Amino acid sequence: MRIASDGQDRHQAGRLIALCLVFMLSSPLVGAQPAPAGHGPDESATAAPESVPVPESLSRYVEFSDGPGPGGRTGRSVRPWTADEKQKVLECLTVARQQAPGLLVRAAAYGRIGLYRAQGCEHVTASACAMFKSSRQKPEILFFDRFFFPSYYYQVRPNVTNRVWATVHELAHLADVGGKIAASRRWASLTGKLIEQAHFLSCEQLWVSDQLCRDKGVPTAYATRNLTEALAEFATAIAFHHEAKINPQVISFVKEKLFALPYDPDPSIPLAMGAFKLMKQGKLEAAREAFDQALKIDPDYADAYWGRQLLEIRISERNKANANPQLN
Ligand SMILES: [Zn+2]
To answer: What pLDDT was estimated at residue 236?
Structure first.
């Protein structure tokens, strides 16, 4: 799913953003447990957000924000956190840090992750916006109503709940800063055909076909949506040791690219990020230089390459406009 304010931004966003939506019906974890009677967010929630300090072990990686947030730009409303909601998210992040600390380190490598309480989207649990998406150029996660539904809590696998799964899934998106890993040739060669075959098997009946996919070495049916969702789902499964039938090469790749520590940030990513920002500001020559530097470091950086091409179009349009001022 793409969220952007206009056509151009939408196109750019679609290219650059690891945007994740975990749908209730397509969740790998929904349906295996009876739903409890409650259908809304916990009624025990109280409005005392300041009463929940973020533990030091997490505060370097995440920060709660009551807005204005990405919801304002995307048409989704953001509201203040309740203490209960914060606590639920912190519990999930604590587990995520224990299971895969490298994910948090990577996801927050270029800025602390902004945590927002978004409303609406009844089928959506959470979504992640890589820093390219954010006007503040920082990673963000939106938590929707469904994340806090009592029925969404239940543990349907030996060591992981729906909420924790969704949290780790979003962190995996953010950990692929700049979308380079999911867009890499290696990831496509490791999983492209596999998820295509599994998707054919699942026939879009995502909520009944997880087992079919697992038999093919794909952790969930949701992973068959595309290479980006596959990366997040494989990473989450591997973080919780649900590795049955997963190709050992896939496991090694995910651990190396998303989990391994220490992590040295990739210098081409902030260069590309800066280039997109410069382009948005109309500083086209400076943007070109930044894109070129990013591509010099990593000639296979697909989004930087795409941005560089987009930039040339912008420059051409500007030059035409300057040559024919009456057209302005
Ligand atoms: Zn996702």
So the answer is: 96
